[in-house]
């Protein structure tokens, strides 16, 4: 958002009221700065609201991280931060105690058990032991049989154990309450709202716009909102081009009461395992225990736990830690979304927009580093000399890559295999070696598909195969970095016959689970070559430029971008429509609905309204089928209306009637008020998917969400359409509306409640109920 210069209300606005943001607000206020701390009280999607939080320093060490400068630097920061905690907790206690009452667990016991793989679990356990010795940190090698409270399944028998008395956990909820109390006591203005956008005040940060509609102004703004920071970066056009995007590493936890009213005396955890996940149990007091683990990387923060992840957490805990946990009661389940940047490293420092800072992307280190980073950022924001070297974590940067592509690919394959073993996968022994080789080959090919030179970290390389948007974000980030920091060189592709390119495309699209890989490959080849698919010569060599274009198109389709978006065209009733980002793609089964609806109408021109018109395809198709009709298409999206108008202009010769498109809300009682009781046919292909229902990426990711999703039950738009149709249609007028197959009964009820008769459900070409027709009663 742009704004004219105006007086600043605060020295600093901190966006994000988790542990990092709250700590910074407290530290700044303690130095005399005027501070606003912005964040919703419920802290949606936060990583720091889980009850039992590890203050992990040595326990977070992995063999891979110690082998790189970046990993060694991260450990050095954790070590320094650990020493800052006693004084920090004392400050936050406000004189009531030394602050240590917030800690829990008499140290940490690290278990190496028979779950997982030697190359990861055993290597990381040994790395922890080695670093403990190297730094002279008190620790003890203990017999697993002597670890209190531990009673695992025999198949998960612990092999070795280390006790680290100085490594504890804390109650994160109590920590946040103390931070909030201290902030208020120091004069921080706590703003119970979210930040919707950053104010760009002539090339520098000027404040934030709140999601409640107000604004706050300051000379400096710090984004410490975890994964939520991304939407604020996105609010400044172009700012995030070379800042690695934030995705979510969804951590899952459960708070239990135990049947036998016991709890562990220490934190019990495993070393970091596949993709740096670690099972841990934290004592909470009063016969309660906190179970936690780090989940996989996902594009967007999760509000609710994934069933498979919750089952895995509970199963792992009672099999690997204590068998009778299966008889305990689950008091609470929490999903915490740890911010994870596309190159795997934090975003710490000032962005290219002067005065706008980021303090996020710390993944598992956010809690332990919070006092140290709060002090460092406070120094920098108040003009003091920095102490820590955070240069590598400057937000705008070339992608950081501590390992070679081959090393990253091998690590990804090893962790993917280990994740399977961790889930009790039974792999025949004669398959195990070849399976590892196959996974390496698959991930190497996938890395090549993402980019010729840059390689994401293992967590992102694996996640990008599952989530097309992550692959898109990686490619966009890499492309912007090339443009900003210099081009990369790539080898010229070999000249091959089209059949070889088609074979590669078929394999690629099949692996990506595209529904019609062979047909899509042919369509894309024809599009790249500028000819119809049936006219392609499969034996002819494809010129290098055409081949490169074809492969680029196939990669987009493999990311589940709709074929119609790639070609820019969709066909309905023999009419070709332009489609692209910002509009819903018309689908061929809508032809049946239009045909049925017209059959129920009188012959000749009609007065027609098409709600949720999208690209305008249904409206224009009726205009072509019933020449002379007067048709109005309505959509809530300005972008969709522009696409519809463009299609109307292109098809003017084939659609001779009057077809107009306007913006409007189907539930607005003032919509098309002048047409009340005058419409012959009202059609709609509305959004009808429940908000939490997962649908294929072609619809759920790439097309506008407002064109697919419609409230908790998927029927918000349908309710508005039924009421509006009852108002607009004349007596005997026809309603035709598409719906989700599973909601046919609910749709029939809604239409019936609006006063319609002759209500009929119709199947699509696959046999599933897809649309309903009805008639407005006469009189």
Query: How would you sum up the major sheet?
Result: 8 strands, mixed
Strand content: 15-25%
Mean pLDDT: 92
Number of DSSP-assigned strands:
28
Principal-axes shape call? globular
End-to-end distance, in Å? 52 Å
CATH superfamily of the largest domain: Vaccinia Virus protein VP39
* CATH topology call of the largest domain: Rossmann fold
Low-pLDDT sequence parts: 489-493
User: What does the radius of gyration come to?
Assistant: 30 Å
Helix content: 25-40%
CATH architecture classification of the largest domain: 3-Layer(aba) Sandwich
Output the CATH class name of the largest domain: Alpha Beta
State the helix count.
22
Structural class: alpha/beta
Give an account of the 3D structure:
The chain is α/β, with parallel strands linked by helices and 779 residues long. It has five domains: 10-49 and 172-245 and 344-393, 3-Layer(bba) Sandwich (FAD/NAD(P)-binding domain), CATH 3.50.50; 99-170 and 247-341, D-Amino Acid Oxidase, Chain A, domain 2 (2-Layer Sandwich); 405-485; 498-559; 569-775, Vaccinia Virus protein VP39 (Rossmann fold, 3-Layer(aba) Sandwich), CATH 3.40.50. Helices cover 36% and strands 21% of the residues. The strands form five sheets. Strands 1, 2, 9, 10, 11, 12, 18 and 19 form an eight-stranded mixed beta sheet that branches. The chain has an eight-stranded mixed beta sheet with strand order 6-7-5-14-15-16-13-17, with helices on both faces. Helix 19 links the parallel strand 23 and strand 24 (658-663). It is globular and about 90 Å long. The model is unreliable at 489-493 (pLDDT under 50).
